[in-house]
Specification:
mainly alpha, single chain, 4 helices, 69 residues, Arc Repressor Mutant, subunit A
Length: 69
């Protein structure tokens, strides 16, 4: 796992939306979404539950957030 991608994950978890996190990180939203999807694939778990307006962390996502800090 790349530390840069871990920082992306933590920012998304804090901002609760990918678009806000992308603005904070100065990335495009599609780029950030792809990085997060690749992270989920690498870890073999779903980190987020994606809703219409915001995302919430799954149990695995909460664990990674706690350990990532």
């Amino acid at each position: 796992m790349d530390l840069r991608v871990l920082n992306y994950f933590l920012t998304v978890a804090q901002e609760r939306t990918i678009s806000k996190a992308a603005a904070v990180l100065h990335l495009s939203q599609p780029t950030l979404s792809k990085q997060l999807k690749d992270l989920e694939t690498e870890l073999g778990v779903q980190l987020f539950t994606r809703g219409n307006r915001e995302i919430t962390l799954t149990t695995d996502g909460l664990y990674l957030q706690k350990r990532g800090r």
